Inverse folding.
């Protein structure tokens, strides 16, 4: 948690307003609901976001200079793309589901339905974070599946976000997180 907030503050996209809004819900949020997925534990979301950023930056650094994206923009997208999960999940109270299905969390039905990318942008923009068009598109398109327009018209920062996420998930599954 400390590393997340230090990095986000250093690069200028985590402000007091967003930090206060996200609060403990964000710090404790899992990245997924099921133990068989990845990071389905308290604090799993921040762990996942940091790992995504790490992989995306490493990929970006390996690119030819003319193809690299701005590191501040890349870190912003990687560290903000999942903040919409801050209030999305709540602990599963059924011991049977936890034990027999690995369902550690369930969806919070008390919030308005939005895709995670949409909610992440909404949270950021509503709390004083400025996003460029490329950053906005990267975050909003991140969790769209079977959407050819978002596939073909994604920004380079969006592609790096997706690659970083894939590698972070594979890493977590390999290490049973």
């Amino acid at each position: 948690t400390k590393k997340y907030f230090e990095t986000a503050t250093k690069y200028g996209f985590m402000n007091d307003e967003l930090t206060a809004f996200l609060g403990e819900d964000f710090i404790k949020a899992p990245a997924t609901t099921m133990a068989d997925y990845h990071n389905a534990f308290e604090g799993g979301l921040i762990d996942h976001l940091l790992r995504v950023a790490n992989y995306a930056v490493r990929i970006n650094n390996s690119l030819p200079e003319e193809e690299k994206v701005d590191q501040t923009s890349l870190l912003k997208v990687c560290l903000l793309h999942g903040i919409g999960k801050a209030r999305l999940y709540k602990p599963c109270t059924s011991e049977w589901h936890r034990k027999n299905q690995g369902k550690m969390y369930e969806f919070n039905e008390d919030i308005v339905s939005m895709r995670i990318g949409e909610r992440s942008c909404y949270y950021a923009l509503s709390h004083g974070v400025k996003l460029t068009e490329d950053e906005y598109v990267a975050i909003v398109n991140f969790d769209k599946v079977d959407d050819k327009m978002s596939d073909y018209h994604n920004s380079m920062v969006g592609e790096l976000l997706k690659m970083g996420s894939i590698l972070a998930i594979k890493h977590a599954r390999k290490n049973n997180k």
